[in-house]
Amino acid sequence: MCGIMGYIGPKDAKEVLIDGLRRLEYRGYDSSGIAVLDGAELRIARAVGKISSLESLLGKEKISGNLGIGHTRWATHGRPSENNAHPHMVNGVAVVHNGIIENYAELKRELISKGSVFRSETDTEVISHLIDSYLSKGEDLFKAVISAIRRLEGAFAIAVVSEKEPDYFIVAKNFSPLIIGVGEGENFVASDIPALLPYTRRIITLSENEIAKISRDKTEIFDIRNGVQIKPEIKTVDMSPSVAEKEGHKHFMHKEIFEIPKVFTDTMLGRIDRENSELLPDELAVRTMDFSRIIIVACGTSYHAGLIGKYYFEQISKIPAEAEFASEFRYRNPVLKKDDLAIFISQSGETADTLGALKDVKELGIPTLAICNVMNSSIARLADNVIYTRAGIEIGVASTKAFIAQTEVLLMLSLFFASRRGTIGEEERKRLINEFSRMPGILKNTLKTESYIKEIAPRFIRSRDFIYLGRGINFPVALEGALKLKEISYIHAEGYAAGEMKHGPIALIDEDVPVLVIANRGSNLKKIISNILEAKSRGGILIGVITKGDEETKRLLDFAIEVDETDEFFQPFVNSLPLQLMAYHIADMKGTDVDQPRNLAKSVTVE
Ligand code: G6P
Q: What domains does the chain contain, in order, with CATH numbers?
């Protein structure tokens, strides 16, 4: 949800900014812009559309300088247009912003009454006018930015550059992510690490309510609330710039699906002792173990992982569990108890609704645990405990490998709780732990379903609706499969609990509607077969994900994607891969923008 980039140093700022914005484009891509100090003048270039549009514009405009800020936008206030694109400049001071200023309407009214003239519909422009109003009262740039920030309510990460201050720029943060990249005689800022990797691996993560003054060879950080200077903590990130490259794949999403077997191995590394069939406590050990209920809170794909987690906690650990959309959970005053454990799942660790829910729960003194992919992200830092998924940077907007890693962590955690509470027998525990070691191989095998999926995908590129059905633990997998298809192919898809089909969706089924059924061998198969027959007798096109060698089920289907047999608790992993590949190939054949689907953003830092 918007990406910010900033640079000061000997290089051509424009080049660095464009390169960084490209790597941040997954955060928003409806318009972009840069402001570069060119001699004594701040020059702005903004364009609607992707970074390539901005690049074409810059090909015509000769802008050069060594200090600048840039932005790639996901529209919240005001449609995508050149005027609404950032940076917003007032009297030689330019601002870029990620987040939402919640009290912008009242601030705007106040500023207009004092003579400010607004040129955009954005909330960001109030920041520019506020800074200008404090500058005209005689404050210096740094003080004026602090005074402006003190008036703001909501979430923001901002970067500010002024024509009158050619030796530094300012960044500040409250709930939207911002990191500083430390170079030799040059410094950078960005919303996320991949943007910085070609330049430096030494980073400082800004915390809430921090403001930094960034010059070529110095970064000074202060607490916005009391002005006290804070010693920066520089960390070296162990990542190669290639994480942000497609490495021969056509899309990041494809690359990321093919990374899943490795991600599965990485995520269990050091957490499972295969020899002794034990789970190693390390971070799996939640500070308190005497909770009587688990509440899982998340959004989007992470919520679907949470729904699978609910099955795990109930069936393996025998702990009552609920999974909730963060955006709903926050505003319905849920009844929580001191002996609940609240788990927050987020790939990015920045999703505003999930972060907001975490804050509310923490205030009630309830123990919290985060499952995040991005190290040091806001949710990871705020929760009492964090377990990291080790999926690596996920760039495709549609989440794939992170979903698998989240589900894997939930399965490990449920086993861990079960072992500690004695709700699982020794044999069963050993069997499940053994299944963990088989998974990377099974997942590699599952990727081979791609050739068949590619063969059948052209049949569905003109479909208007799709129904995904699953039962039990595979119901959330069906929801996630449908979400993937919607997100990237723009085909309407509904995930449904197979048993509920007869209470509504069956009315949609005819010969134009493909019905994808998850029908592995297992406790639910007989019932799923009844659902297949119900759909078939209404003329639906039946696609099934089935267990290899299950000829009986295969005969009932028009298309059968065959996966290896595995324990039921592990079926979500093997079933998700073909569903992700199916969505990918249909979308790719339709020619949609797979990695950056319309209207979406990777990280939604607004409510
Ligand atoms: C956005 C992304 C989804 C993601 C959801 C939650 O909608 O497009 O892929 O599942 O946010 O994100 P999180 O980072 O909290 O997992």
A: 3-243 (3.60.20.10), 252-590 (3.40.50.10490)
